[in-house]
Design a protein that fits this description.
Layout (H helix, E strand, L loop, with lengths): L19 H11 L3 H16 L32 E8 L17 E4 H7 L1 H10 L7 H9 L4 E5 L8 E8 L5 E10 L4 E10 L7 E10 L4 E9 L5 E10 L4 E8 L4 E10 L5 E8 L6 E10 L5 E10 L4 E10 L7 E10 L5 E5 L2 E3 L5 E9 L3 H8 L5 H17 L5 H16 L1
Parallel strand pairs: 3-5, 4-6, 5-7, 6-8, 7-9, 8-10, 9-11, 10-12, 11-13, 12-14, 13-15, 14-16, 15-17, 15-18, 16-19
Antiparallel strand pairs: 1-4, 2-3
Length: 428
């Protein structure tokens, strides 16, 4: 275990894992198939021996988890920490839940259920990609995660409408670890929304998760995510999408909940001609800290990525965005962009924006940009001269600022809900 040493660079109150968590790992290992036990043991080795992240690491520089007491949190490897609700909605989310069933071969379930019903498929999916090398908390979720969401679409299948998966995670004085997989075989199409929520609890908790997304050759995935944990919960999550040849991904992320949340969101454009459009929005308020760390990795030629993240910070809220575009020497004809735009509504809020490029090929088009600003006084004046009261004028301007991202979400109910939550935070 890493030693506990007081240092100005510390992010966590102690630099060692609770001893009881090793018992949880051993119990989790005991219930996993033999084919996965080596992988889990390797993950635990990293989780239990690697130092905690500290502020010398640029990705963690602005984070503070000292108020999170890991020792006080229970883990339970005997039962699942999640409750999954699945809804199959009409295209664009209009009307009642779809009356039909999902196409044959499509699987939407939990990891625990898949290990029981189709262990061969579970082993295949879990063995395909490993996030252990991404650090202590990615390894911890891999070693301790005993359940999570599984979405599997077999080759050549198109799912009309929107598949909505609500993951309610038990965080009542608990640490919950999840392993989640979205897997599209070649030539498939899916619109998917994942909603992360806490159960109704009286005590704060901690979620640590990993999400692997596989988009096969010539497949199309529209993925919407909403992080809506309770405001006294904590979150660290690693999410990676792997794109095959001519695959297309639209990934929209809304970060709304939690006390302090850090998400690593990475796209690996591995196949020639693959494309990714990434949109994100953050609404930190009431002292929240929300950090989204994005990376667009271009490994193959003629790949395209475009990222636009926006934040609206108020009432001592803090938003932090780290962005990086990497272009491999083999990735000629890459076309990549990233943009981060931030709106600060009062003097108590704070925004950090850190874009970056690492380009190792000359035959590319890449650019990035970042802006931080306040409500435009001239725009406010224009609206007020037309009879709109100041508060309503400000609400209109903020809604217009966020709308470009929010409109990317597939479900109308989601779009309306995001706007309602933003307006409520501004008014409260």
């Amino acid at each position: 275990m890493a030693k506990s040493v007081d240092s100005p660079y510390q992010i966590f109150s102690k630099n060692e894992l609770p001893h009881s968590w090793e018992d949880g790992f051993l119990d989790n290992l005991k219930h996993m198939p033999a084919e996965l036990q080596s992988q889990l043991s390797s993950a635990w080795e990293v989780a239990s021996t690697q130092d905690f992240p500290n502020r010398k690491d640029e990705s963690w520089r602005w984070m503070d988890y000292k108020r999170l007491d890991l020792e006080s949190l229970q883990i339970n490897s005997h039962t699942s920490p999640i409750h999954l609700t699945v809804r199959y909605l009409r295209e664009h989310g209009e009307g009642e839940p779809h009356s039909g069933s999902l196409p044959s071969g499509v699987i939407v379930t939990t990891l625990r259920e898949l290990l029981t019903s189709n262990s061969d498929l579970a082993i295949k999916l879990l063995n395909q990609h490993s996030l252990v090398k991404n650090g202590k908390f990615a390894a911890m979720a891999s070693a301790l995660g005993n359940d999570g969401l599984i979405v599997y679409v077999p080759q050549g299948v198109t799912i009309d409408g929107v598949l909505q998966c609500i993951l309610e995670i038990s965080l009542d004085n608990r640490a919950a670890f999840t392993r989640n997989i979205v897997w599209l075989e070649d030539g498939t199409n899916l619109n998917l929304e994942i909603v992360w929520v806490s159960d109704t609890n009286s005590g704060s908790g901690f979620h640590n998760g990993v999400l692997n997304v596989q988009v096969g050759e010539r497949s199309n995935l529209h993925l919407d995510e909403r992080q809506q944990f309770n405001l006294d919960d904590w979150n660290i999550c690693y999410e990676v999408a792997y794109l095959g040849k001519d695959a297309q991904l639209e990934w929209n992320y809304a970060a709304i909940g939690s006390d302090t949340s850090k998400n690593f969101i990475r796209v690996e454009l591995e196949g020639k001609g693959s494309q990714a459009n990434l949109h994100g929005v953050m609404f930190p308020s009431a002292g929240q800290v929300i950090n989204l760390d994005t990376r667009q990795n271009h490994w193959a030629e003629q790949t395209f990525s475009n990222l636009l993240y926006k934040s609206v910070a108020s009432h001592e809220g803090r938003s932090i965005w780290h962005g990086m575009i990497y272009v491999d020497p083999e990735a000629k004809k890459t076309d990549a962009y990233q943009s981060n735009k931030n709106l600060v509504l009062d003097q108590t809020a704070d925004v950090k924006s850190l874009p970056g490029l690492e380009i190792l090929n000359d035959d590319v088009k890449c650019s990035h940009g970042a802006t931080v600003g306040n409500i435009d006084a001239e725009e406010m004046y224009y609206l007020q001269t037309r009879g709109i009261p100041p508060r309503e004028a400000m609400l209109l301007l903020v809604e217009g600022f966020c709308n470009q991202v929010i409109e990317s979400f597939a479900l109308e109910t989601t779009r309306n809900g995001l706007l309602d939550q933003l307006m409520k935070r501004m008014i409260d």
